[in-house]
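Subject: design request, 273 residues
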């Protein structure tokens, strides 16, 4: 059984603030340890369920957050950016299951550090007509590869978001949102134990992917109409209205790095504002 792990940071145990997840934030270095240990709990859980290989993709910001020397040596790590598929780099149909560790809810939700790829510039994302964020997009892309998402960890709003997308996925709430920058935390040891045991149980009872979703069209609404006017110069990207671009899901997913670079060049807003 080959297991793929996509690790984000906003939904990691103990993390609540932008300073926790962005260098040179005051607690960023400690959060890297917390993130690595959440991933390690999932890796232990996967091997206890009979995994024969685990690939971990660092999927947050600079994508150089996980600490290789603290990471369980049974896992392989994809570190750094840019990489063509960003948060799902390395995922292929060969994998039997995917795990989302440290994920967060979509833009507009009152969840810890909620956003969709860019805190200010992206207002909403849709898959076909369903409002989504990074969670739904990860799930739909994995489904397109025939890989089931087995576990998600994050705050309670991230867990709820995935459950509403696919109720069969096991979730581990490691904190309960009070606001976008505050949460009641599950004690660290308890959270890691829950990640480990939930991963083992979920992988031991893997159900094949439910009917692959028919989602084919990805649409992104930007805060600034200036961004779509640049993006529609790219083949396969069309304008739905002044602030929204649309196109084939996998095509647009591959373009996301480029989207973010264009957007950063056109605007200069920091994340999470
Ligand atoms: Zn992130």
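Subject: RE: design request

Done. Sequence follows.
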């Amino acid at each position: 059984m080959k297991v793929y792990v996509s690790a984000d940071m906003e939904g990691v145990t103990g993390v609540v603030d932008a300073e926790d997840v962005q260098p040179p934030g005051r607690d960023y270095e400690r959060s890297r340890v917390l993130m690595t240990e959440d991933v390690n709990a999932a890796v232990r859980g996967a091997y206890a369920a009979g995994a024969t290989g685990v690939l971990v993709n660092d999927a947050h910001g600079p994508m150089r957050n996980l600490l290789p020397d603290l990471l369980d040596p049974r896992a392989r790590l994809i570190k750094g950016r840019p990489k063509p598929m960003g948060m799902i780099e390395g995922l292929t149909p060969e994998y039997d299951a995917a795990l989302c560790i440290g994920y967060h809810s979509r833009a507009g939700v009152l969840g810890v550090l909620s956003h969709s790829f860019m805190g200010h510039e992206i207002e909403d994302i849709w898959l076909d007509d369903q409002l989504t964020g990074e969670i739904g997009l990860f799930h739909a892309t994995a489904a397109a590869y025939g890989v089931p998402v087995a576990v998600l960890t994050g705050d309670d709003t991230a867990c709820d978001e995935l459950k509403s997308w696919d109720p069969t996925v096991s979730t581990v709430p490691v904190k309960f949102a009070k606001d976008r920058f505050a949460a009641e935390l599950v004690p660290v040891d308890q959270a890691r134990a829950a990640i480990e045991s939930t991963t083992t149980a979920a992988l031991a009872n893997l159900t094949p992917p439910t009917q692959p979703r028919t989602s084919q069209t990805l649409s992104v609404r930007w805060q600034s109409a200036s961004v779509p006017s640049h993006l529609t110069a790219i083949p396969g990207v069309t304008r739905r209205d002044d602030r929204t671009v649309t196109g084939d899901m996998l095509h647009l997913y591959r373009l996301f790095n480029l989207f973010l670079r264009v957007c950063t060049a056109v605007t200069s807003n920091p994340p999470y504002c």
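The CA atoms of residues 15 and 31 lie 7 Å apart.
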